[in-house]
Amino acid sequence: MKKINFTGVFVILILAVLISCVAFSGCTESPDAPDTSENNVEKGNSDKNTQQELIIGHPWNLKSVDPGLSGSNLNNFRVSEGLISISPDYKLLPTIADSWEYVENSTWRFYLNKNVEFHDGSKVTANDVKTALDRSMKLNPELQGRLNIKELKVVDDSTVDIITNTVDASLPGKMAYGAAGIYKNNEGPEGTISTPIGTGPFKFVSYDKATDTLKLAKNENYRDGAPKLDSVVIIFGIGEPNTREMAVEKGEIDFTTEPTLGSTKRLESDKNLNVIIHPLCQGYKLKFGDVSKAPYDDVRVRKAIAYAIDRQKIVDNILLGRAIVSNGIGITPGIEWRNNNLTGYAYDVQKAKGLLEEAGWKDTDGDGIVDKEGQKFKITLYTWPQRPALPPLAQATQSMLKDIGIDSEVRIMEWDAISDRKNEWGMITVAGGDACMMIPDPSYYIEGNFYSEKNDYNYRNPNVDALIMKGRTIFDKEERYDAYREVQRIVCDEDCAQVHIAYHYHMVVTDKNVKNYIPNPAHHDYSINKDMYIE
Amino acid sequence: MRFRDIRLDDLLRNKASFLGLVIIGILAFTAIAADFIAPYDPNKIELDEKLKPPSSEHIFGTDQLGRDQLSRVIHGTQTTFKLSLIIVTITASFGVFIGITAGYFGGFIDEILMRLIDVLLAFPSIILALVIIGSLGPGILNTVIAISLVGWLYYARVARASTLSIKEKEYIEGARAMGCSEMYICTHYILPNCLPPIIVLVTLNMGGVILTIASLGFLGLGAQPPTPEWGTMLNEGREFLRDCPWLSVVPGALIMISVLAFNFIGDGLRDILDPRQQVIK
Amino acid sequence: MLEIILKRIGMFILVVIASTALVFFMLHSLPGESAEVMAKYIFLGNVELTPSNEAIDIIKEKYDLEKPLFSQYVTWVWNAIHGNMGTSYQTNSPVTEEILIRLPATITLAFVSILLSLLIGIPAGIIAAVKQNSFTDYFCSTISVLGISIPSFWLAILLIYVFSYTLGLTPTMGYGDFKSLILPAVSLGTPASAVIARLMRSSMLEVMRQDYIRTAIGKGLSYRMVILRHALKNTFIPVITIIGLEFGHLLGGTVIIETIFAWPGIGRLLITSITARDIPVIQGCIVFITITYLVINFITDISYSYLDPRIGRSKH
């Protein structure tokens, strides 16, 4: 039998295909991809020609570049700005509006800064403000409900009146909401905007839908001086945290957020990276399905659960340093209207058991699970998978509840599927996110969570409702904040309406040469700064 | 070659199949005796012991909640084997039933069933599973439903093909002449003769089913934590891929080994059952 | 031939209608009111917030969600027949555009993976068959069993860990250059190449047992000639079928791999659309995937009967 050299054939075939692959990929590269290879080249040369380009890897998708549809994205990447913005220490900053005042009859008057220009060089007029907000609210009824605006009236070129549906002291904070940006209405015939024109330090250059990549360039004429970065490239939709993490470690991107949970120490010790961990106005909590029904209609049961949670252990072992222990209310420390004098619920198993027993829950059959009138305390903990800390948090909660005799099952499903199960006996949602500064005003978190008409777990307390109404209608800041502080005391220390566990800390990883990033805890989830630069 | 001609020693002579049998034997024993051999309670959370690398105390280390990884993979064997056995039993019996019905009676029924199978086969099964589990919610039972819904197709095809060739055989004519009922012919003549290729398919399919269960678990759609299941564990370990690689490597390797073992046995069986595959010199 | 094609086209329509109807009705039975989910994605951009009732009502009205399901589906089919696949709820742009934009990425990946799997699978299968029962055969066979046993998502993770992270040879993500294509293509191509290698080996063995091959060797023709000229052509028939099937599997399989590698293809579009309940886009993707699958099968069958004329006569 004659031998043939198949190895040779094999090698030739491999070579042929490699060549054709290279050729093939060469074809796909050029037109439709503002691709990474090109960026890498620019980056490699950045030292020589001082091109300052920041490449960001972003976890979520960008739905649209139309400012009316893109939510907070354009504000966060500083293409557009609102009438007002929020500073890292939670103060309202004049932005497009210079000043504002409450006139009367639910009317707020905003005086515009006359030096604000759009990227195309035109001045921002009161009419532009009205057009932009009217358009956004029409496209997004949700925004309309949230802003509580009845109509906008142009007073003169640089003065605009905003009339709210009801007397509303919270309107200035609402004007700092990321989705309430001001932009030039240059919509095309089909009613969408494909090249957004804003007033921010960065100008829109291009958006490639295929790769979900947004390119921005500096606005040379920005009123506070041009930004130091020449351009910013944002690659959206990198959902896998491992991928984002390795990409920034390898220098494929310069800036990313929320790497894997276990990575903190390793990334911090990496000399090529900067790691910034800062508070973000979000938290983790247990939310009862329905506090008007058994078993949670008894405040002692709610408090027992609050005492059963070892928050320090959770923060140290599950949130792995990316959180701090909560005292019981979901308003991040440092926020002006937060009540800093709450008693809260320090971990105390004995107290928890005592409260359960007082409420009539005793282990009568010795199986380790408490029961009452023949009903065993068996519940389901629901949580969702998008936040990596939630499933382990739910499992830890499960084991802590077991210690006080509550038997539970963990189920991880999509958020929407969970909201269908609110009526299940004893269900608890183990929640993350829970933003408290989406709109920088106390009404946002407190009304949404505790106002009878707005909360979705049947929490009703007339005193709380009265205080909330007071907060809406009085204009003296301290008096107003005091009303909200009293609400916090009632819902936390008296009623234990929700069991808050921890305040979230956000992690940003950048290349070591990226300088001047100033985190802003009120932004969801982060925002770039004008003065960032690459060394 | 007939079903009764499969002899165990033929299978044992094939080195790969032998290895496969040994591995499956060990894993099956582990699955059955999981409660006795697991050194720890697989669901016992010890937060202070979290993310410990492999040591003499915890051979495969501990996971993010401080649970012993070895005990979890041992119990995971149980979950995986139980699930895949249930799925394969359901799909194989249903598929064979449909296949024999279609093949034996032919005509209109056959045409309809085969078109239905074509339609279902043209549909990407993972996407179907995603939609099904999306609507039913994740969990063990729904995993079984989602996989079974398309799993029977292959069995039906194979059973139909065998039935078509068997029903032309003389002994079927004979049985019919002797007045045997259709039902009797199907269960006593067709079914036993269909079995050899079905057995091969079952063995090979076990591997495929284990892979699908793991994929769904990996996507977070399979067994719910804290139930130990390999795919789910892999998904949980993904968050610690870089810092605690043992959390991803161990369950992944076990998935691979068990699929490999079933494939080895399946290949061996096929070689025995299909004499044309025998060596030519 | 014409009859076959007509039959095929009929089949096409049947499959597309059946699968889109299946998906349509199943999506509407998903938990959570569709309008509410859509309102979240369209207006809030955050699933953890609850939309207002006004917003939900607007969505219901805008997308006719109050109508009976069946009439909604009929409307969709009617529009689709007229070439209007609808617009994405999320981005407001036409579904066809959404799909076409992502098409190059998915096609590139699937094509390169298939190419890779053929390159590895075919020679490995031939070598194993020609040197049956040698060490090489055992080696190739074992590797190929390993290939079909390895979960592709796990392989992807290991490959990233080894090649991107430890060795730093390939990028971890991205799309556009050849380097970023390697790992996803290998992750997808490995199981496919194993399948092809196994099939190639067994069909090669079968062909080599045929009388004409034995005769050819007996006549003293060179062994290499016999293998390359006679045996190979006949082994390709089953291999071509499997390539068609594998290509279909690849289109489905990219769903996970595209997510892991942040590859901007149809798979990722489908996943994000399923969670956002963007039904027109999901339907569009399903139609696209089903049609591609059927077209490939059709081409496979045609080439099948071309390579082996006996088949064309006996069966459709």
Detailed description of the structure:
The complex is a heterotrimer of chains A (535), B (281) and C (316). In chain A, strands 1, 8, 9, 10, 11, 12, 13, 16, 17, 18 and 19 form an 11-stranded mixed β-sheet that branches. In chain A, strands 4-5-7-6 form a 4-stranded antiparallel β-sheet. A two-stranded antiparallel sheet of chain A has the order 2-3. In chain A, helix 15 packs antiparallel against helix 16, helix 15 (442-450) runs parallel beside helix 17 (477-494) and helix 16 (462-473) packs antiparallel against helix 17. With 535 residues, chain A is of the alpha+beta class. Chain A is 31% helix and 22% strand. Chain A folds into 3 domains: 8-77 and 188-254 and 513-534, Periplasmic binding protein-like II (D-Maltodextrin-Binding Protein, domain 2); 84-180, Dipeptide-binding Protein, Domain 1 (Dipeptide-binding Protein, domain 1, Alpha-Beta Complex); 279-505, Dipeptide-binding Protein, domain 3 (Roll). Chain A has 17 helices and 21 strands. Chain B has helices spanning 8-13, 15-32, 34-37, 69-105, 107-121, 125-136, 140-166, 170-177, 182-218, 230-238, 246-273. The longest helix of chain B has 37 residues, at 69-105. Chain C is globular. Residues 311-316 of chain C have low confidence and may be disordered. With 316 residues, chain C is mainly α. Helix content of chain C is 79%, strand content 0%. Chain C folds into 2 domains: 31-84, no CATH class; 105-275, Orthogonal Bundle (MetI-like fold). Chain C has helices at residues 2-28, 34-44, 53-62, 69-81, 95-130, 135-149, 152-166, 178-209, 211-218, 223-260, 266-276, 279-307, 309-314. Classes of the chains: A alpha+beta (535), B mainly alpha (281), C mainly alpha (316). The interface between A and C is large, with 70 and 67 residues.
CATH topology of the largest domain in chain C: MetI-like fold
- CATH fold-type name of chain B: MetI-like fold
> What would you give as the CATH superfamily of chain B?
MetI-like
Judging by the overall fold, what is the CATH architecture of the largest domain in chain C? Answer: Orthogonal Bundle
* Number of structural units classed as domains of chain B: 1
* Overall domain count of chain C: 2
Oligomer: heterotrimer
Q: Spans of chain B with pLDDT under 50 lasting ≥5 residues? A: 276-281
Which regions of chain C are unreliable across 5 or more consecutive residues at pLDDT < 50?
Answer: 311-316
- Beta strands of chain C, count: 0
Number of helices of chain B: 11
CATH class designation of chain B: Mainly Alpha
CATH top level assignment of the largest domain in chain C: Mainly Alpha
**Order of secondary-structure elements of chain C:** HHHHHHHHHHHHH
Residue share in helix of chain B: over 70%
The string of secondary-structure elements of chain B, in order, is HHHHHHHHHHH
Instruction: Classify the beta-strand content of chain B into a percent band.
Output: under 5%
Q: Give a short account of the largest sheet of chain C.
A: none
End-to-end C-alpha gap of chain B: 22 Å
| Percentage of residues assigned to helices of chain C | over 70%
